[in-house]
Design goal:
The chain is mainly alpha-helical. The protein has 19 helices and two strands.
Length: about 475
């Protein structure tokens, strides 16, 4: 018996059915053509009308049977195909089981060969027991230490003090790695090299952390939580910095103290850095678009790099929002209505412009000069932020900036920055003036929004007040 469920065989059967049907079917009366009326009359007289209808019924029945056969053929062939697919899955599964068993046998052969070399009880291995030639876990760990020492020696780490330090640290903090190295060696596994590399990576990471925290303690940062906060921030944002410090210590470089100082300088400048994702919970009382939010991030990070307190940062940010709504191209004049104005910068037109709405001719001239000296543009946010820092620390506001930083609460900081540094028109009206009071209230409300966001964002991150 030949089993043939190919597509070709299916087509052959269907072609045979088509030959039985014989093309287009016409009823018996249609076959009579022009003689239909006369023949029908004679058929009635002869009493054979029922036979003509039976001929039609017979042919229709043949067609129905053939259609049923076609459907049955399709069902049979599809069923065979499905069965083939089902058995193929079973056979593939069995084949994978066989391959897995072959791999197990090969592994067992390797283990037994290794066992023969080391004198291990092979019966324990055959019965599925974990190889334990030395008995207790402590003994396996000791065997792992010896294996690690051999690998260190083979890879050029010959200093006995360093060898002992590596073995002690890994055995104490990651004992499973030492045990796995021993087992991989014992079984002749190809994973030995990878396990060794993981051990050395773990050792380097841990020594980097320990070295950095040791220097933090040396320079007065002794609280473990604060040490972890500083190290965690650097590890996230600039991992190469503590790594450089560790390499310098390990190599006995004279630059260690300078590197640590630069590391702490980086931390102090960037410990308050945020990203656009950190603004998820910020509500300024009105919607800010993407550009405004990006400007918020850039302004906040610049202030953080100037190493000022949280209250002073919030005071400046509230004033920036009140002045420009965090838009570097906001031109504040009756003829300019949008956040992003097409403004031709002029120093003497008394039009407030930029994130701090620089208005006075002398300050706009200084902004233009700074932009030219730094190959920037007065319209660019980066240039405006650079000029802001210059103006506060070296420029026209250098005498007032230190006094601003002495203000010991948020409201006083807002009032001083608004009235003494920005010198906006409303701020000069003085207390008691309705316009002044309304503007001051708005500044404080903006500061409250930012402080609420700050508390939610930084306190949740465990950073606390800086």
């Amino acid at each position: 018996m030949i089993r043939d469920f190919t597509q070709a065989k299916r087509e052959e059967i269907k072609n045979a059915l088509e030959s039985i049907d014989g093309g287009e079917w016409k009823s018996f009366m249609q076959w009579c053509g022009g003689r239909t009326a006369g023949f029908g009359d004679w058929a009635d007289r002869l009493g054979i009308s029922s036979y003509t209808r039976q001929i039609d019924d017979y042919q229709n029945r043949i067609r129905e049977i053939n259609d049923d056969v076609r459907r049955q053929v399709d069902i049979a062939f599809e069923g065979a195909a499905e069965a083939d697919r089902g058995y193929a899955k079973i056979f593939r599964r069995h084949a994978e089981t066989v391959r897995e068993q072959m791999r197990t046998v090969q592994t067992m052969l390797q283990v037994m060969q290794s066992a023969n070399r080391t004198g291990v009880d092979i019966k324990a291995l055959v019965h599925g027991m974990r190889p334990q030639p030395e008995g207790s876990r402590e003994e396996r760990l000791e065997s792992g230490r010896r294996a690690l020492l051999i690998h260190l020696q083979a890879r050029g780490i010959t200093d006995s003090t360093v060898q002992r330090e590596i073995c002690d640290l890994i055995t104490k903090e990651q004992p499973y790695m030492v045990e796995n190295l021993y087992m991989a060696d014992f079984c002749g596994s190809e994973d030995t090299g990878e396990i060794y590399n993981l051990i050395m990576e773990c050792y380097t990471d841990r020594k980097t952390e320990m070295t950095f925290k040791e220097y933090l303690g040396k320079y007065g940062v002794t609280d473990p939580a604060e040490q972890q906060e500083i190290y965690g921030m650097l590890l996230e944002k600039q991992p190469s910095i503590p790594q450089e410090l560790y390499r310098a210590v390990r190599e006995g470089s004279e630059d260690v103290d300078a590197i640590f100082s630069a590391t702490m300088d980086y931390y102090n400048k960037h410990k308050m850095d945020i990203t656009i994702e950190d603004l998820e919970g910020l509500d300024m009382g009105e919607r800010m678009d993407q550009t405004q939010r990006e400007t918020f991030v850039a302004c906040w990070n610049k202030l953080g790099q100037m190493e000022i307190s949280k209250d002073h940062m919030i005071a400046v940010m509230a004033c920036i929002f009140a002045e420009s709504r965090f838009s570097a191209t906001n031109a504040q004049e009756s003829s300019y209505k949008g956040l992003y104005d097409d403004y031709e910068f002029k120093t003497g037109d008394s039009v407030g412009y930029g994130i701090l709405q620089w208005t006075y001719e002398t300050r706009k001239e200084a902004l233009l000069k700074y932009a030219n000296d730094t190959d920037g543009s007065v319209h660019d946010l980066e240039t405006q932020l650079g000029y802001f820092q210059y103006e506060m620390e070296k420029g026209i506001c250098r005498g007032k900036w230190p006094d601003f930083l002495k203000e010991n609460n948020l409201k006083k900081a807002i009032v001083y920055f608004w009235t003494e540094i920005l010198k906006s028109s409303s701020s000069g009206l003085g207390e008691g003036n309705p316009t002044y009071e309304k503007a001051l209230k708005e500044h404080i409300e903006y500061a409250d929004h930012i402080e609420n966001w700050y508390d939610m964002t930084f306190q949740q991150q465990g950073m606390g007040e800086k």
